[in-house]
Amino acid sequence: MNAHFHEAGVRQAVGSGLGAPLLAGLALVCGGCARAGYSGQGVDAGASDASTPAVYLYFEAESGRLIAPFKVMDDPQASAGKYVLDVGSRGNPSGGEARYELTVAREGSFFLWGRVLATSDMADSFAVAFDGAAEDVYHTAERTWSTAWQWSMMTLGDSGDWPRAPRVYRLTAGLHVLILRSREAESTIDRLLLTDDADFRP
Q1: Count of domains observed in the chain
Q2: What share of the chain in percent tops pLDDT 70?
Q3: Would 200 be classed as within a structural domain?
Q4: Among 69, 80, 98, which Cα is nearest to 186's?
């Protein structure tokens, strides 16, 4: 599936309260693969220029290029009524993945959020990587398991580490490839947010 959203389209799509405005000129392209600049990990996001609007790049999990057994499912409580389920033996890697191409308007320190539903620690994680770098584990609902959809931030550390520092991605301006790979089957993802606003909570 390919999609290209400019500011007006994204504003309309997130107007239901599940999102925020997108910086003009920022775009999302789903499908295909290309490499782009990536640097470092770090924990300190640094100070941002108060005169520069923050970036809020929302995208639906089902808008990416999915590799089975990742599957699009229906849920009226999910954003746009759909979400992605990692189908497989609960708690084990299934071999599935989702790939997203994101165009970032400017260089900066970015944070990744996901809208997830996880009822236990047996199905609450994905492996995540930008631009072919080493994968990190995204514990989607560590200690906040629930039967309701919730937003959670990508953090550093293993499931036994608490509290954990935010995972900071240093991204250059331009095209980047984000991959979510199966780690625990039956994990779910509804929507994602890439932002350079360290204080924002979806």
Answers
A1: 1
A2: 72
A3: no
A4: 69
